[in-house]
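quick one before i forget lol
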Amino acid sequence: MTDVRIMTRAELALRGVALDTPVRRPEGAGPSGDGHVLLDGAGAALPVNPDSPFTVRDGTVWLGEQDTGVTLVPVRRPRFYDLVTADGVPYERIARLHGADVLATTVVQTCVRYGEADRCRFCTIEESLRSGATTAAKTPAQLAEVAEAAVRLDGVRQMVMTTGTTAGPDRGARNLARCVRAVLEAVPGLPIQVQCEPPGDLAWIGALREAGATAIGIHVESLDEEVRRRWMPGKSSVPLREYEAAWDEAVRVFGRNRVSTYLLVGLGEDPGELIAGAGRLIDRGVYPFVVPFRPMRGTLAARDGVGAPGAGLLRHVTESVAALLRAAGMRGADQGAGCAACGACGVLSAAGG
């Protein structure tokens, strides 16, 4: 029997809501950029869509004239957005609020794989740079300054640091380690997740842990080689065996369920194979953060007219993976920091994962 509430959450994740929100992320690194709200008290990133059949009345989500029973409260604009760094950069261009209490930043907003022949078809990492919403490179001092204010003024409880892939063999890990150390000097004990491609030298994974990172995301997006080549022509040049070696080393260093990877629903991968692949990741101690592909503005996929998956498919995959996670005793919240701990871009946490 379909859980009506999970189905509603899946529909909302894909069709969005006809509501403006004070906190938005219209573009950037990763597969989703939306308005940030609290659904039934939990963080969610939903497309802001004036054509959505979902509306909000008196704090409740309605589908046409039907009350879904799901409560929705927009995340308020944080106070740290009103500040400017010591070197004159608005804080909002350094790091953004995700959900109600997660600070997120892309420390390097360029990627060696962003040329059209290599670019991931769901990514807009450099579009936010071109629009002036962010800066190309955030310094450790800037990140430390913004993180301290976000914690003090807005109750931020965790931080996510991702990066565009750099040309060096560390693929961005070296700079991430510097940034983690600087932030933790300013805000001791703040849980931080770092995200990067598998570094050429796996010793960088240990260096990130030694710098103080709580968790790590090494994002593959799909385990299907054909899908990888089609959707991530540059990134797919890194063989899956390198991801597997990096995941295993990360689990050794950070611990079970402190390592995660995105798996995108809607790229054309067979659902049964996606679920089975998620199960193999769980067996490794890696949390498979299942989220829907959504055609963000500025992506190659949106340009080519590729649409989001159906809500039924998203619900099926999400509930199946959530059941595997529960059986393994793995919850996203137990990651300590990061995308799976936040959960806003997917439906897994609502399904018990």
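fyi The mean pLDDT is 93.
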